[in-house]
Fold:
Amino acid sequence: MDDYRKYFDPQTLAKLAGLDLKARLIVEGYLTGLHKSPYSGFSVEFAEHREYSPGDDVRYVDWKVYGKSDRFYLKRFEEETNFACHILLDASASMAYRSRGAAVSKLEYAEYVAAAVAHLVVRQQDAVGLATFNTTVTKFLRPSSQPGHLKELVHVMEQTVPAGETALGPIFHDLAERIRKRGLVIILSDLFDDPAGLMSGLKHFRHRRHDVSVLQIIDPAEQDFPFDEPTRFRGLEQLVEQTAEPRSLRRAYQREFEDFLREVRTRCGDLRMDYSLVRTDHPLDVALRAFLTRRMQRVGRT
Amino acid sequence: MTGLVLRNLSANGLLAFGFANPWLLCGLALGSIPIVIHLLSRRAYRETDWAAMRFLLEAARKNSRRMRLEQLILLAVRTLILLLAALAFAEPLVEAVSPQARPRTLLHRLIVVDSSFSMGARMEAGTRFDRAKSVARQIVADSQPGDAVSILRIAGHTSPGVIREPAFEQDVVLPEIDRLQLTDEPGDLAPALAEAVEILADSRAPRTKEVIFLSDFQRLTWGGDTSAKSDVPALFRKIGEKAKIVLIGVGDGRTDNVAVTSLAAVDPIVLPDRPARLRAAVRNFGTVPLPAVRCELYADNYLVAFKPVDLPAREETVVEFPYEFRRSGEHAVEVRLPADRLAADNRRWLSVPVTDQIRVLVVNGHEGGRPAENASHYVRTVLAPSTARESWSGATQPKVINEADLTAEDLSKFDCVFLCNIALVTRTEADLLQAYAEAGGGIVFALGDRVKPANYNAVLYRDGKGVLPAMLEGPIGNARDPVHGGYTFDASDLSHPIVAPFRGNPGAGLDRVVTLEYMQAKLTAGSPSRVALKFSSGDPAIIERPVGRGRSVLLTISADVSWSTWPVHPTFPPMIHETVRYAAEGRWHQRQYLVGEPLSCTLTGRESGITVAIKLPDGSEQTIRPLVGENRTDINFAATIHPGIYDMALESPPEAARPQASTSSGPVKSASAVRHEFYAVNVDPRESDLEMVDENTLRTSTLAGVPYDRRSDWSHESRELGASEPATSGLSRWLLVAMLALLLVEPLLAWNFRQGFVVLCSLAVAGLGFLLLPGHPRYAAVFAVLLGGGLLAVAGIRWWRGVQSPRSKVQDRDR
Structure:
């Protein structure tokens, strides 16, 4: 394994401390392996000026205009005006699941992906925002391209504790209302909810003309159901328990689960959304590449 | 049955059910173990958090009934495994009380058909053998599907095996029964019984066995002493341990039969144009005297004489035919009786080689100054007593050689070798003489003052293994000092053929021959040697013994006048002639055989390269490959399956062709290269006695201590269970088989219930097929193996696809 590639391994990343470090390592590794930026086609051409307001990065103050008009104006660029990335991170209790063979939980894996994407976006001087949710929206950070904003995002994610049930439909409606500016919406979730409500919420994003990418993150055990002995399953979100003979139930469970994945994938395709299924035992670059490649294709089409 | 038996279990009282080891039924409690484990396992489970609960709940809701059923079936299989094991070890027994409820037991029947020639006796309808075949067919026809049948025959030399492998299909067995043929051999039980013991050990056949003998139970075959080497009662005991023995008599109990029991030439050597006496023995085995039975003599297939003979009941009558053969060579003689109910023993054949010359090689051991002083002088003179006016034209043709020339002579040209006062015999000469005698030649040793007893004992006697009939101990008397008066022959016992002409003829003066000196000879106990004539002192004067096919005669006196006056006594010429004839008889003696005995003929070393063809009584010809040794050639022909004359043609290669062979004086066909020898093969006369063995002999001797069932016919109700085996033996075995099958299926059921269930069903179907088609167990086994194998293969493929598919699905999505 090349040196940089080791940071794609969830098991390796789990040993590192600090989400920002992890994100940086993932992105650097990814870019080093790619040899060219996936965003090389995005220009940073000057678009307009806007008046300075406190908190803005002084690096973008146009000192020439200040010399002429004695006012502070900031330079605005084309991409910044058009590209705002919103990362919606599912922090419900089901995302806390980590099977015996997995290195990280689904939430941790989602955070790695989110941080890496945010790092990439900010590195390209684009704005990135974050919303964490379970039953309700627990945190909402508006998009910003400030490097300091990245720290804020990482901090929020590190502080996120998975809890509560997933109610994706209402949440997505709420967030669609909140995110007014058209942009890229990246959903990181296991999507364990009623498909009808889920699709209703996703439709809302499309209605707002957002570009939506769905990364469904699941644990390998949830797909393989590798249990043999009689087991009592305790629900992480619902307070129910089910005792089962896994060997006799495996086939039926897998049929239900695959039906669900197939339905989600089909409906996302119908809504012209990017959809990727990611298992937490997959390397991070798989998730990133799946996401970014689809992005490139979509940008190329538009 | 020592175990627990519960009778009248059903309402009709049809079955008695029990267990050989009822205490092992405690093992049935083991059947509760899987249930207990199942109940415990419902409480003992692992706990885990689970996110995708909605899918699990949905799957459980939709499949709860199926899963419960699967668990119950799996639990039932596990319980059944233990219950079957416990039942199998308890050995359940089911005994039928009423015939309708009798369990169907598969039988292995061994039908042993007596094929000895006495079975050819005619009855009102066909022969005994026909009836035996009919009963055999009936037994096979009564067999039920799944029963196995083997067929053996009782004969003499013919192999007893007809169908050794247990045959389950009547289509195979019935044609073999039809093809069974009567032999001309006497019955010998031992080979058939030994074969039966082997077949009964075959584990492929059903375990319940019956051995059914179809025979006329003739006294000779079943009397218990037919085969001295084999222990017939012991073999019957072995059979009785494994099978039920059934004796079915197919004879009619009649004993009337007339047979020619022997036929021989009275004179040892038959000469042309001289009356030969042919003596036949005819026996009436019946209880009614038969007057004026026409007894015919055939010579070379022509009727040459006949006599009406009165045959008293149960007695043997000797019939003698004088007949003069016109030419030398091989002749076939037959005595024939009118046909009766057993035809095989009404004809008897005799091979009569007629020779016009008896060639004698006289070996002179002492050369004197005058002819009369030669050791061989008197022998040569009496064998060819020619005078100045008239030359000798008799049969004996002596040739005198010096003892040094013995090894240079081709002994096979002579019928007899007469050794006169040979001092020392070398090892080479002894070997030559030994081979010559074994091939049929005759040797006469006449001793004398030059003989070294130690040399004779070491080289010729060889502790009884050599050609000398007795060990020489040393001379008795002193010919140079005739003071004591000498010794005379003891003429009180003249029963031996050599001295038989003097019997009843005291005037011949045999007891007046004075012998001054003789060599004392000692016969060891158990020696085949016989004393033909003794001295008055009790010591033997003439001793003879058979050596191979030939004979050896020892005269302990000299053949010249050095030790006695005998050579000049009138008794000397006839005695020497009789001695030579007797010694030379071996050439023609071994021409008579019984059916089944191999014809054997030994030729001396110079016969190498010979080709042998034999013409059988039925006219067919066979070529025999001789076994060529260093100094001899052995010819053996084993297929003497029919009585009659066997014409053996010996053809020498052209370069080895001799003017005429000495072993036969038969006609020379082409350039002296081919000579013929006739061999007579006859049936064993003991088999002609049709009297049946009595029940007491069977019970106390032949089948001593062995239970048997003797019947006069076969009937349907004969299908009974073997006494040596319980009615339901094998049930435990099937329980264990079922348990093993379930043991194999259980892991598959637990791993993949659907495929395991299909395998379980297929095994059940195969088991049903095995039960319903018991005659085709192989098909059921093949069916089960193919079905099970196919299902396992499908399961394996599906499992492999299942392993592969999640990965490929993910790869598809990533793409």
